[in-house]
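Minutes, methods subgroup
Present: GH (chair), OT, SY

1. OT presented the first of two proteins processed in the latest run. Sequence and structure tokens recorded below as shown on screen.
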Amino acid sequence: MPDFIFIEPKYFGQDQNDDHPPHNIFKGEKLIADVYNAIRSNPELWERSLLVVTFDEHGGFYDHVSPPSAVSPDDLPAKCDPNDPSIKFAFDRLGVRVPAILVSPWVGKGVEKTQFDHTSLLKYLIDKWSLGPLGRRTAAATRISVAISDQLRSDTPAFIRVPYTQLVPADPALEQEDSSEHHRALQAFAYHLARQAGNVSALQEASREARSWIRIKSIIGKVMLSTGAKLTSDLQDVNKSKVDVTMRVVESMIQSARSDGLPRNVG
């Protein structure tokens, strides 16, 4: 195994596993479970590994804690808002809190109360491999090593199972959604910046038109999927009823066999 591995989820398409709505977030959970299971199944690897699960976004606007001050990452002057020069950004404050999870036989259960920031992981790697300085904020960050114990745990789950039934979305049409209003806004902004710089080629424009046609087809496909689901709902109900009746008959036979004193594996 390499000393450091960075895993990025898939953000688009039916096989997405990025935890972003409207996708099925259980697929994101399964990605984490699959990584954990792969490491945990190898005892030697497990006992020298640290799995860090981080997020780039917070969970909403409910947080009651105001973002604290922070060390500016460099000595550059504060940047001004082009629309209002009186507003300056010194990058001397952290953002809203985001979750992070440390998974290892060397990490105990519980919540670590120490204040970290996104550079705390970098600080840990710098110290571990003597990488040298990576900015003032990283140098001032708290190491995540404060949450790592010198006691090896033996109570970690041997395997995390994510049932297949949880991976089937209630609305399959949403799983076909390759984009969102946010993604389209970012793409439009990127094209705007490229036009300002004169870097948009005819090929890029053609690609944009092709994506528009793909979105139209996606809309048509979702309508067809929804219509098909409605048309086949009666058949699905009948099939479910057949399964239920069959299971009741089988259970009845098993109970009857047991009451007659037959072996329990007759069913």
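2. SY then presented the second protein from the same run.
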Amino acid sequence: MRALISCGRVDGRPPRSARSLLALVDSMVAEPGDFAAIAEQHRAHLLRVAQRLAGNAEVAKDLVQETLLRALRRFAQFESGTRVDTWLVTILTNLFYDYLKHQKVERKAEPELVALEPAAYEMTLATVADADLYAAVVALEPELREVVELCYLQQIRYREAAAILNVPLGTIGTRLMRARGRLRELLTDTKGRS
């Protein structure tokens, strides 16, 4: 195409209108070089295409960003002489199709995800006052309080706590589980009264 355009004048330079056509062709056909310049040159066009596809400005911006990222990663594989704008729009379109598939999967899984969300507020230790925690530990049954004091307050290992209390190792784990449940009940009641 360059040969056809450049044969317009005797001095070898193309006529003025042919030079602008040559600049247009050069902008659409990539030569190895600076990807940043190519990305900046085609960003507005990609944004318009993405906006038409997605119908949402934020999604369009994300699509363009991801398109340029993928193009940068694969720029070494880009064949010289290929139209850059077509290559970029192809990447953008494929990303949009992936986006639609992802949205479809999310909509399909939404009822299951809602079912997995915790139904009630889970209290954390940071929200419990020390006095309330101490009162709840004191209110535990003696066998549960012993295990809590040994394993949590004194930080003794389960095996050692089992030897001290002369109970099987599994009993320590069971009592701690029961103690945590009971503490949760006691502390929730305390929070409800406050």
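Chair's summary of item 2: The chain is about 75% helix and 0% strand.
Next meeting: continue with the remaining queue.
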